Amino acid sequence: MRWEYQRPERDLFLVDGKTAWFYVPADHTVTRVPAKQSGDLRTPLALLAGQMKISRVCSHVEFSDVEKPLVEGNAVLHCLVRGEKQDAVSAEDAENALSASANDAVFFEVARDSGELARLIVRQAGGVSVEFRFDNWRFDPAIPDTMFRFEPPAGVAIVNGELADGKS
Q1: Which domains does the chain have, with CATH numbers?
Q2: Is the CB of residue 3 less than 8 Å from the CB of residue 10?
Q3: What is the pLDDT of residue 99?
Q4: From residue 81, how far is each of 17, 37, 148 by CA, in Å?
């Protein structure tokens, strides 16, 4: 998978199947971590964008009363991420739990007529919120394999990221 960002600054997040790479051109630095040990939420949630296999990421899904859809008629679902405590963040307590530094809250806005993912919201403790919006879905477009391989440019420092268990 490949995520390219333009704002707030240009950067690239790429997973080639073995390694997750996070490249910030302005910093002349790339961070790499084994893909299976990447704590970045984009890694597991990216599966949803292409295959919508919510059961691989969420242990429980329910309609959300906390988050409202951007498009009238769409449904907003709250996902309890696998491995998180069942009572940590419910849809009703999402705002309170987040302010109390609980686990992440993940919401999906889905078009009821097609089932297509329209928006993904990840709210983390400390008030950090990331929102992705999706439209103009194209399935299996012709994209060269080179788009999913990362070659650090000359002069870029490669930093080994921290693993999930805190080891480098």
Answers
A1: 2-137+148-160 (2.50.20.10)
A2: no
A3: 32
A4: 22, 16, 26
- Is the bond preceding 141 in cis, omega lying within 30 degrees of 0? no
CA dist list (Å): 87 to 37, 81, 94, 113, 116: 25, 12, 11, 31, 29
Quote the radius of gyration of the chain (alpha carbons, Å).
Answer: 17
Q: Which one, of 8, 49, 42, 5, lies nearest residue 23 by Cα?
A: 5
Q: Using one digit for the tens of pLDDT, what is the confidence trace for 42-90?
A: 544 555 545 446 776 788 899 999 999 999 999 999 988 777 554 444 4
Q: What percent of the chain has pLDDT over 70?
A: 72
Nearest residue to 39 (alpha-carbon basis) of 107, 131, 124: 124
**Could you tell me if 18 and 34 are in contact, meaning their C-beta atoms sit under 8 angstroms apart?**
yes
